[in-house]
Design brief:
Oligomer: single chain
Largest sheet: 6 strands, mixed
Strand content: 35-45%
Structural class: mainly beta
Number of strands: 34
Radius of gyration: 23 Å
Shape: globular
């Protein structure tokens, strides 16, 4: 039986519609855009991170490859620089230029030359305070020779609301010096610094995750193992890599998710049946929430080694978790190599792990009969991107076809509205690849752009102006900036909340190194 549960009750869809909204205030019917400041960066400077404080001000972190000094500019909502500080990046990270080639000194480069980042330095905001955390690793190249930090220690720098800087050296647990420690993500609550750490030992063949906490006043600390399932990365499925990923932190709970190979069902051997797990841990490392998105699909499965992973989003505005992805129809015929993509699903959860809704849309049922040809093309796709418009409560599902792209629009009840199909040439002409406007947030740790290999945004990361250009004054004015730039598009755009919550500020970073930063306000 095909799925028929794609109708979404209004009260549940109200949560879904808020997935991109966050304390923006209401813009007037006709928004005004103004360029308020332009900052020229030094020739070698790289915009490694941009985070927004609670008061709407924006911290711009600028570094140079192989240098320890990181320049921090605090931009006020009117675009003026309130203060400039310098923090220290103790270590540099070298990575392979081409991961497919043998690793050697000549085949490596500083990671920030591949894409703007501060790694291994991690920055975030808590309220109006900025933090920079770094795990000391003896295998990394030291940029700052001075200091009392030892292998595995965490160096924490704190810049308070007034710009005062304080440095902490947080001693790590007493573990073997052969274990490699890396941060999956950090946060501060109630004067306590927390870090989700990954500990890997190639000698012992172990890969474990821990919650570390350090009370910045009393110096009390804890090192608690997180009870996570072991990863199964067998050689027979090299294109299907299992990994635990940090989704985020909200209200005392940290969420981690993974995609893994199912050991149940009668899926033909050449295929891989996928399942998902989403777990929540409190500040003592105790599991307090467990979810399995993508279940309840009836006769359908999430299969195929090449099927793109589902997208996970933690929405702090509505305090909910959303998972979306494609699902497929399989056959018991073991000669069948390629399953048919049948539709997409949307699962919504409360922070406690309670499932609020499970929606399932089958393309064959949702699209009208005259679009049968499109349904056949959708069957050959390998994933979806789902975005929500906070102004109209509509959804768009973007699907890559063979040589074309399809945008499927759904109303607030998940009823099909229309489809827009464009060729690759039209897609390039529309400059969609550069029209992403990323939301500013207190952290950049898990954004898709903060990776050399993952560049496709997921729900919650961007303002979807390409799909909903005329649905709101904010969309129209932001999209006007895109059109004004024509072929000279900036490297990246960020949008945040302006002073008083009555408007927005947009940052345009012209280049991945050097160049300028333009600040616009939309009132």
């Amino acid at each position: 039986m095909p799925p028929s549960s794609f109708r979404l009750p209004n009260f549940q869809y109200h949560l879904l519609a808020a997935v991109l909204a966050f304390s923006t205030g209401i813009l007037p019917a006709t928004a005004q855009t103004k360029l308020v400041a332009t900052i020229t960066l030094h020739k070698k400077e790289i915009p490694g991170a941009v985070v927004q404080r609670q008061d709407g001000s924006v911290a711009l972190f600028l570094s140079q490859p192989g240098e320890s000094a990181v320049r921090v500019l605090l931009l006020q909502p009117d675009g003026k620089v309130k203060w400039e500080k310098s923090i220290v990046k103790m270590q540099g990270l070298r990575v392979p230029i081409d991961p497919q080639q043998p690793t050697g000194p000549l085949s490596q480069t500083w990671i920030e030359k591949l894409y703007p980042t501060l790694e291994p330095l991690e920055v975030f905001a808590q309220g109006n305070t900025l933090y920079a955390a770094e795990v000391v690793d003896r295998d990394l190249e030291r940029l700052e020779k001075q200091g009392d930090a030892r292998h595995h220690d965490i160096v924490l720098q704190r810049v308070d609301s007034a710009g005062a800087l304080k440095r902490f050296v947080l001693p790590y647990a007493d573990i073997s010096k052969h274990i490699s420690v890396s941060s999956m993500g950090s946060y501060v609550e109630g004067g306590v610094f927390y870090q989700i750490s990954r500990e890997v030992s190639s000698r012992q063949g172990t890969d474990e995750y821990y919650l570390n906490s350090f009370d910045l006043d009393s110096q009390a600390r804890q090192h608690v193992p997180l009870q996570l399932a072991k990863l199964n990365n067998s050689r027979w499925a090299p294109n299907f890599k299992e990994s635990w990923k940090l989704l985020g932190h909200c209200k005392g709970i940290t969420y981690l998710c993974r995609r893994y190979k199912s050991s149940t069902g009668s899926t033909p051997e050449p295929l891989v049946q996928q399942q998902y797990e989403l777990l929540g841990f409190d500040n003592q490392g105790k599991q307090v929430a467990a979810m399995q998105p993508g279940l309840g699909l009836g006769d359908y499965r999430i299969v195929g080694k090449s099927l793109r992973e589902a997208a996970f989003y933690l929405d702090p505005a509505t305090e909910t978790l959303l998972v979306s992805g494609a699902y497929q129809q399989t056959s018991k015929n073991r000669l069948l190599q390629e399953p048919v993509t049948a539709g997409f699903f949307l699962d919504r959860y409360a922070l406690t792990g309670q499932q609020l809704s499970h929606q399932q849309v089958a393309y064959a049922d949702a699209l009208p009969a005259q679009q049968k040809a499109l349904v056949q093309q959708l069957a050959e796709s390998d994933g979806v991107m789902v975005f929500s418009d906070p102004a109209t409560q509509k959804l768009v599902v973007d699907v890559a076809l063979k040589g074309r792209y399809a945008a499927l629009y759904f109303d607030e009840k998940l009823q099909f509205a229309k489809s827009v199909v464009t060729s690759e040439k039209e897609r390039r002409k529309s400059l969609m690849a550069t029209e992403y406007v990323y939301h500013l947030s207190p952290t950049v740790k898990n954004y898709s752009y903060n990776s050399n290999y993952i560049t496709t945004p997921v729900m919650g990361e961007i303002l979807p102006i390409y799909y909903f250009q005329t649905s709101a004054p904010l969309h129209q004015q932001t999209y006007a900036l895109v059109l004004k730039a024509k072929d000279n598009q900036p490297y990246r755009r960020y949008i945040g909340t302006a002073a008083g919550g009555t408007g927005r500020m947009v940052l345009e970073i012209s280049e991945p190194q050097g160049g300028t930063v333009k600040i616009h306000t939309i009132q």
